[in-house]
Hints:
By secondary structure, the chain is an alpha/beta fold. Helix content is 39%, strand content 22%.
Amino acid sequence: MRKNLCLCGFGNVGREFVRSLAARQSGILADGLDLRLVAILGQGGGIYQKSGLNLAEICNLPAGSSALRSLTGLWSEEMTGVRGIAAAQAHLLIEATPTDILTGEPGLSHFRAAIANGMDIVTFAKGPLVKEYRSLQQAADARRVTIKASGATAAALPAMDVGCYSLAGDTILQFAGILNGTTNYILTRMAADGLAYEAALADAVTAGIAETNPRLDIEGWDTASKTIILANALMKADLDLADIQVKGIQHVTAGDIRAAQGRGEVIKLIGQAIRTERGVEVTVGPVCLPLSHPLSAIQGTAKAIRYVGQAMGEVMVSGGRSDLAGTAAAGLKDVLNLYRRRK
Ligand SMILES: NC(=O)c1ccc[n+]([C@@H]2O[C@H](COP(=O)([O-])OP(=O)(O)OC[C@H]3O[C@@H](n4cnc5c(N)ncnc54)[C@H](OP(=O)(O)O)[C@@H]3O)[C@@H](O)[C@H]2O)c1
């Protein structure tokens, strides 16, 4: 089976996805799936080759679409945005653009274009699904295309897969997750090494764990985005950021951590969704957990999610590397699982 892919966004994640595909392409082909990357779209243009791009050549380029301009003959200023998605005539859109969680753009327009063109979607960008989960899913169902979002829901931690496949057939009553590696690292350093919040944050930036502007992580928005997508996908909620309470870790003090330790507790940033009589309620914020709680043992950049199914009971998964290689591989996993089951 041959499937043509169109990658939107050749930044750190997009380029790592190309590397991941290049490294595994022959093995995937041997398994009967011929994945061809036919287009890469950037902001000012992109590259296209109907027979499939030479991945080895692209892997060595620096991130950023300006590097793609060197591939003269393939580069076109037309290959951008919704025009580029339509022109690529691919089976699948890989969305790897930066995300605006308030507007969903630019990914939201890309999603709509892909669905209108009958393309499946594998996304790293959270924005479109945070903003418009229900309408996008309805449009996708109507066009009989599939949206997969492991890359937007803690990536290498198979949070979505466990909820979607392993708990299929059950009713998920609630889940709680440590879904952001940066904030868990900061809280771990504060608890284990007695650091003040500012010192632990500075350490995370120096170690390359936190971005230079880590607001989305530390104020809880990244955790909130992942929690909303999971709740909408797995518990049929219909929520966006305006519907939920979001607290970050920026006001957690060394004194709070010490007080928790004195009570035999740890503080973790938890995204949780609970099914109630009023509907699914989602909250995001620092929570004091007893040491006996399974999420309290999750240290450093590690992530974890614990589901409670009505019939299956507690199911927890933890781990998955919080780096680019793990993120890219999670996107590739979605591509394979999408087409494997259609073989
Ligand atoms: N970094 C991670 O570990 C990680 C993990 C999970 C999910 N994600 C998500 O993955 C996405 C990409 O992250 P990143 O770290 O790769 O970002 P990045 O390095 O900033 O790269 C983003 C790329 O997107 C391109 N782009 C921006 N607007 C575009 C548009 N309208 N059309 C086409 N391309 C556009 C840019 O193209 P130009 O080069 O033309 O400017 C740039 O190359 C984000 O949504 C992020 O939240 C990241």
